[in-house]
Specification:
Order of helices and strands: EEEHEHEHEHEHEH
Structural class: alpha/beta
Radius of gyration: 15 Å
Number of helices: 6
Mean pLDDT: 92
Shape: globular
Largest sheet: 6 strands, parallel
Strand order of the largest sheet: 5-4-1-6-7-8
Amino acid sequence: MAENLNLSCDIKMVVSDFDGVFTDGTFLLDENLNQQKSVNFVDIMGVSLLLKNGIKFGIISGETSNILEYFRQKFGVEEIHKGIRQKGIVLRELMEKYNFSPSEVLYIGDDINDIAAFECVDYKIAPNNANPIVKVLPGIQVTKKTGGNGAFREMVDNLLCLKNL
C-alpha cells in the first residue's frame, strides 16, 4: 500500500497544477506549431478516484491548453482555472468559496510559479522531478514518482489509503 506521504483524513479538496504534474513538462510541436502533450491515464484515473470518494478537485494552470477542458467534460470538474499567473490568489478564493481551511486542502505543483499556492495550504506535494527550489520549500513532500508518470496518482493512493476508502 502507498503510505510514503504524510497526509490527513481531513483533506477535503485537492488542487493541482497541470503541466509538470499530469505531464512530464514536455510537449511536441509540429510544423504548424500545434502543441501536443502526453498525459498518463494512471493520473487521470486518480481524478476519478478522488471524485468518487467525495473529495473536491480543481486545476490551476498558468497555461491555457484545451486539454484542461477534458477534465471539465469527462468528470464535471467545475474548478478549472486556465492562464493564471497568481495561483495563490485563485487558491485562496477557492478555499473561501468552499469554506475550507489550510488543513483541508492539498496543493500539488512542480515549479516556482506554484510557490504562492503552496503557501496557502498545510499539505504541499511536489513530483520527484519538480524544480529543485520547490523540493526544498518548508513543509513540502516529494512523491517517489515523477510528474506525468504517476506522481498525481501516488498522492491520491496515499490519501485514499489513509481514508480507507
